[in-house]
DNA sequence: CCACAGTACTTTATGCTGTAAGGAGTTGCA
DNA sequence: TGCAACTCCTTACAGCATAAAGTACTGTGG
């Protein structure tokens, strides 16, 4: 068997994720004052309210009346803690969707649930997807969406691709909204305040805006759903709207793929 | 890591972005040994190869034979530097697309160019979209895509929503691929090595995998486009494929919207 | 009962980060 | 020549993850 560098660490974090740490009741030394779940809960609370930027080992320790170093008794490192936060939080998402009313209804519900989940835990969108931690709830999340997508009757390859595409679309849109939420908290400035401040400066620095960007100017004028002064807001229009419209178009596209298999 | 745009001296950073800094040839004191563009170019080089995590004022200064503090003569802060990097880099993207062959051909080209752009500059995906810097090339990028989307004949509101949705979809998918690129460089471990190491551990820790996640197991077995041992790879299948498939479905959905206006 | 080993937790230290403050040296103009 | 403005440097500070070492506690074997 080939042994890869760092596999020992990886094995421990896998055990933590899948909650298969060995029993340790009869050991010498002081009793444990904390446990992994308590630490994870405290960390999630910090991340929920102040973003992953505010998540430090010191902050978590302080919240639990310990120093930062005390946490290392329970968790190998910060990145493992984040993996645990991620997987434990994913457990909140529903796993059962009624396929009776058809795949489209179920997939719409699922997408909306995912959307709401990201708004509840915006920091989740800042966790890298490149090397997933492979915890039980990450798999469960994927399994749930796949089960719905299979009901489209599309071939396995398409099911995989479109599940990924839908997932990334939702992530992308939610990320912008999540970052905006944190920006408001971090700067103490609402989007509206920020926009009106920038609008004025933009006019100063780019007086030829309408000639430079004619399509945008024309669209802003024609799009009555926004304020009259509509150059800057063009980037900022309701993200929820973007989500709903994009999702509808994507689902229409899937219907198309079902009707006319390539 | 997500980098937020700066909120310091907004007026000064706007002037920098729009290159409207006042002329300064006849001033006392030593000649300037650097300039903003040189600094931005050095910073982009660092971010391109090692990610935005490796971008520090010290690193940029060193690359130019200066200390970190020397940069503050030219740039108000790191976050303003990132704004400048972002806008200057966006200038690489094409702005002209032939609408002769129709909107779908143009939008496909545009999406592919954007995709390639993100692969060339993965760090761009780590720059927060919440409070955009509002530089000239950010607007130009939006203008270009809008011009194509307008050719669909859809109403202004839909043009705005679907442009945003398409943009976020591409960003989402590219982000995963970009993070994977950095992960390989940071860990010195290819995705394949990483996968086979984790596959074994997963089997140890979750021997009941197939019963727990039956849909995934069935799909893995049926999806002949991947390796036989196909549980873990399910998350990791070619991201480029996800991009192409998702894009096609999205464009199909737009065609549907054109044919049957709601 | 005592020595020891293993544990929980703390303190201290290292090398990073952005950037504030102050100082040294250079230059153009009055 | 003196001064003011300027570039760039050194130093300093707070905050970060975490390595290393120290302290206090507790169960077990002798």
Detail the topology: elements first, then pairings:
2 copies of one chain form a homodimer.
Chain A lengths: L6 H11 L18 H15 L6 H7 L14 H13 L12 H18 L15 H15 L5 H32 L3 H15 L3 H4 L1 H9 L16 H21 L3
Helix pairs in contact in A: 2-3, 2-4, 4-6, 5-6, 5-7, 6-7, 7-11
Chain A binds a DNA duplex (30 and 30 nucleotides) through loops.
Spans of at least 5 consecutive residues with low confidence of chain A: 1-7, 227-233
Specify Rg of chain A, calculated over alpha carbons: 23 Å
| Mean pLDDT reading of chain A | 88
Pair of chains with the largest interface and how many residues each contributes = A-B, 91 and 90 residues
Number of helices of chain A: 11
Helix percentage of chain A: 55-70%
Give helix and strand order of chain A, one letter per element, not per position. HHHHHHHHHHH
Number of strand elements of chain A: 0
CA-based shape of chain A: flat
What would you call the quaternary organization?
homodimer
Beta content of chain A comes to: under 5%
Through-space gap between termini of chain A: 43 Å
């Amino acid at each position: 068997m080939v042994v890869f560098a760092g596999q020992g660490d990886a094995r421990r974090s896998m055990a933590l994720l899948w909650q298969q740490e060995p029993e340790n009741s009869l050991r010498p030394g002081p009793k444990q004052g904390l446990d992994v779940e308590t630490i994870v809960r405290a960390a999630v609370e910090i991340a929920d309210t102040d973003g992953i930027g505010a998540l430090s080992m010191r902050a978590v320790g302080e919240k639990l009346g310990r120093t930062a170093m005390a946490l290392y008794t329970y968790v190998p490192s910060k990145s493992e803690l984040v993996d645990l936060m991620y997987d434990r939080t994913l457990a909140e998402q529903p796993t059962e969707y009624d396929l009776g009313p058809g795949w489209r209804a179920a997939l719409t519900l699922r997408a909306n649930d995912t959307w709401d989940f990201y708004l509840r835990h915006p920091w989740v969108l800042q966790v890298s997807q490149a090397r997933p931690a492979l915890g039980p709830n990450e798999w469960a999340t994927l399994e749930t969406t796949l089960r719905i997508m299979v009901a489209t009757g599309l071939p396995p390859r398409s099911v995989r691709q479109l599940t990924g595409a839908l997932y990334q679309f939702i992530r992308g849109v939610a990320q912008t909204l999540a970052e905006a939420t944190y920006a408001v908290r971090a700067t103490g400035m609402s989007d509206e305040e920020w926009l009106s401040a920038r609008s004025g400066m933009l006019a100063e620095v780019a007086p030829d805006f309408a000639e430079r960007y004619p399509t945008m100017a024309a669209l802003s004028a024609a799009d009555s759903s926004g304020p009259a002064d509509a150059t800057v807001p063009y980037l900022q229009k309701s993200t929820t709207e973007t989500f709903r419209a994009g999702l509808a178009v994507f689902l229409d596209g899937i219907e198309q793929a079902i009707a006319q298999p390539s």
